[in-house]
From TrEMBL:
One matching Pfam family: RNase_J_b_CASP
Ranges of residues in domain Ribonuclease J C-terminal: 197-298
Membrane-crossing residue ranges in chain numbering: none
A GO MF label: hydrolase activity
Domain of life: Bacteria
Alphabetically ordered keywords of this record: Hydrolase, Metal-binding, Zinc
Residue intervals of the Ribonuclease J beta-CASP domain: 1-90
Domain Zn-dependent metallo-hydrolase RNA specificity: 104-150
Name this protein carries in UniProt: Uncharacterized protein
Organism: Candidatus Ryanbacteria bacterium RIFCSPLOWO2_01_FULL_48_26
Length: 298
C-alpha cells in the first residue's frame, strides 16, 4: 500500500499538501478526530494491519470506541466468516462499522475495462494472453484486445496446465500439459497424499471408526476371550450397550461357523468381519464407520 501511494504521488494522481500524508509513527502528534488511516485487512487476513489493530497487536494503533471503520471492499466469496469476525470484533470494541451492504461505498481493486484497454494501447503487444480469472472474464479481456487493434488470433486464451512455445515471431499453444492442480501439503510431505488416503480421512471425519480386536486360537480358530471393541467418532459405547452386544454376538457366530481344527486365514476373516459388522451397524444406525479388525493369533 505504501508503494502504491508513493507511485500515485509521483505520477500526480494523488495531490496532497505537504504534511497531509504522514508516517504511522507520527499519528500520536495529532488528535484522533484529525486522523484518517488507510489499512489492509478488510477480508479478515490474519497478518494484515486491521486485524493487528483489532487484536491489540499493532504498535501504534488501537481501536477506540469513537472510531468509525469503513470496509470499502466487498466480501470475496469464501471470506464471509473471517469478514464477519472482523465486523463483530470491531463492534465489540465500540467502533462504528460501515460496509458495502449498508451504503454504496464499494471500491474495486480491479482495473475497469477502459483502464485495461489503455494499458494495451500503451504497451501495444504483438500477443496478449489474459491470465488470473475465470475463463469468461479472460474471454472478455480478449475481446477488449480486439477493440484496440490486436488481431483475434493474437489474443490467446489458455487453460491451467497448457504449455505455450514462444519464439521471436510466434506464440503457439502446444498439446503438452503439466500438472496444475491443488497439491496436498501434509506435514513434511508435499504432494504425496494419494486419493485413497484422502478417501479414508473423509470417511473417518464423517462416520468415525470401530476397532475390533479378536484373540483366537491359531490352530483351532476358536475365540479365546470376549472381543474388544473400540469406537472413535462413531458412538459412545457406554450408552449403546445393545449395539456393542450385537457386534459381539455376530462375531461369536461368525467364528463358530469356521471349520474346526483348521488354521484361520486372517485376511479372509477380516474381510468377513468388515462386511457383516458393517451391515449390522448400518441397519442399526444408518451410518457406515470405518471398521478395523485386528486378529491376535495365539
Amino acid at each position: 500500500m505504501k508503494t502504491n501511494v508513493q507511485i500515485a504521488q509521483n505520477l500526480g494522481f494523488i495531490k496532497a499538501k505537504e504534511g497531509t500524508i504522514i508516517p504511522v509513527e507520527e499519528i500520536h502528534k495529532l488528535r484522533n478526530d484529525k486522523i484518517l488511516i488507510l489499512s489492509t485487512g478488510a477480508q479478515g487476513e490474519p497478518n494484515a494491519g486491521l486485524m493487528k489493530m483489532i487484536n491489540g497487536e499493532h504498535r501504534q494503533i488501537k481501536i477506540q470506541p469513537t472510531d468509525t471503520v469503513v470496509l470499502s471492499s466487498s466480501v470475496i466469496p469464501g471470506n464471509e466468516k473471517s469478514v464477519q469476525v472482523v465486523k463483530d470484533n470491531l463492534s465489540r470494541q465500540g467502533a462504528l462499522v460501515y460496509h458495502s451492504a449498508l451504503i454504496d461505498i464499494h471500491s474495486s481493486g480491479h482495473a475497469p475495462k477502459d483502464d485495461l484497454k489503455l494499458v494495451m494501447k500503451l504497451i501495444n503487444p504483438k500477443f496478449l494472453v489474459p491470465v488470473h480469472g475465470y475463463y469468461f472474464m479472460r474471454a472478455a479481456n480478449a475481446r477488449s484486445a480486439q477493440e484496440v487493434g490486436i488481431p483475434k488470433e493474437n489474443a490467446i486464451l489458455m487453460d491451467n496446465g497448457q504449455v505455450a512455445e514462444l519464439t521471436k515471431d510466434g506464440f503457439k499453444v502446444t498439446h503438452e500439459e503439466v500438472p496444475a492442480f491443488y497439491v496436498m501439503v501434509d506435514g513434511l510431505g508435499v504432494g504425496d497424499v494419494e486419493e485413497v488416503v484422502l478417501r479414508d480421512r473423509r470417511a473417518l471425519a464423517q462416520e468415525g471408526m470401530v476397532v475390533i480386536i479378536l484373540t483366537v486360537d491359531r490352530e483351532k480358530g476358536k475365540l479365546l476371550k470376549s472381543p474388544d471393541i473400540i469406537s472413535r467418532g462413531f458412538i459412545y459405547l457406554k450408552e449403546n450397550q445393545e449395539v456393542l452386544e450385537g457386534i459381539r454376538k455376530r462375531l461369536r457366530a461368525l467364528l463358530g461357523r469356521l471349520p474346526a481344527h483348521q488354521s484361520i486365514d486372517a485376511d479372509y476373516l477380516k474381510t468377513i468381519i468388515r462386511d457383516q459388522v458393517g451391515q449390522f451397524l448400518y441397519n442399526e444406525t444408518r451410518r457406515r464407520p470405518m471398521i478395523l479388525p485386528v486378529i491376535i493369533e495365539i
